[in-house]
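Changelog note: in this version the structure field was regenerated for every chain. One regenerated record is shown below for reference.
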Amino acid sequence: MRNVSDYGVSANGHGHFDLVHDDATIHCVVFASRLGRVDDDIEDGTQVAVKGDLSYYESEGQVSLIVRHVVPVGDGTYQQVGVDVDPSAEECLRLH
C-alpha cells in the first residue's frame, strides 16, 4: 500500500502516477484500455494497493509498474499530514 502522487492522464489516454512511500517512488502506468475501470480509484493523496507487472525501459534506465488493478485503501499519509497541520483541511478532504 502506497500513496498516489502526481496523477494525470497523458495525451495518449494513459494514466500516470507515482506510488510514494517515505523516500521511495515507483512510476505507474495504467493503459487507456484499463483506465476507465480504475480511474475513480486513483486520486492524489489516496492510499492504494495495486497489482500489475514491472516493465524496464532500458533506454531510460527506468522501471515502471504497468497497473492492472487498483484498490483504494483509504486516506494516505499526505492527506493525514494535511489534517494534522491544518485542521480546516479535514473539511476540504470530506468534499472530495
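Spot check on this record: The two ends are 20 Å apart (CA to CA). The chain has three helices and five strands.
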